[in-house]
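Look over this entry.
=====
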Amino acid sequence: MERGLNKSKFSTRQMVVTAMLAAISIFLGLSGLGFIKIPPVNATIMHIPVIIGAIVEGPIVGGLIGLCFGLFSMYQAFTAPTVTSFVFWNPIVALLPRILIGVVSYYSYVGITKAVKKNPTVSGTVVIAFLSVVVALALKVLLPITVSYGIGAAVFVLLTFLFVKFRLSEKSDVLSVGTAAVLGTLTNTVLVLSLIYIVYVDRFAKAINISSSAAGKTIVAIGMTNGIPEALVSTIITVPVVLAILKLRK
């Protein structure tokens, strides 16, 4: 479990995994397959290789893959700019959140795995409740309160069912991998949009023809419309891939 921390040097396997997943992330960007068109900015699935690399090989590998993802974002912002691409000319916005995807994903996976094994019922319930509340509060920005809370309750029921079904089986990592995928995705979404607001709120508002006072709500709405699809797709892809890799290693 602590493989990412116990080795002072990269193994050949870690170097290969880093190169391979970084190449996949860049391919997704170059081919256009890594983007979900939700104007005024694009949702992305280019962070998924970062999460997978972090979980299976540790935070350093995840961070390096995230760095490659961020560097590609900068390259694309300069070579194929859109009205909002200027935000990714800043390396703090383009690189820092992407590097932290790997760090957050790895430690989320490790922490939740240990907690579930120590006290599966309590820790599983806490994680599920937390994710359900996050979903409900996020949707509250876009939907009526009753609808958003209803969806949050549905998410709680679904996750509870999955937890009960898998926690005692060989697929007990479903909860920890899925949560790591969600938190890794939200790290990217929340940090990028927060930095946009902090550093570029006026320029961003002007670029998409809204007032500066409305920029905050618009950025939150973008976070919801982009972050939720990204988190769902990330979980759907990451869980079976990581479980297959972990099973092969046993």
Confidence is low (pLDDT under 50) at residues 4-8. DSSP finds nine helices and two strands in the chain.
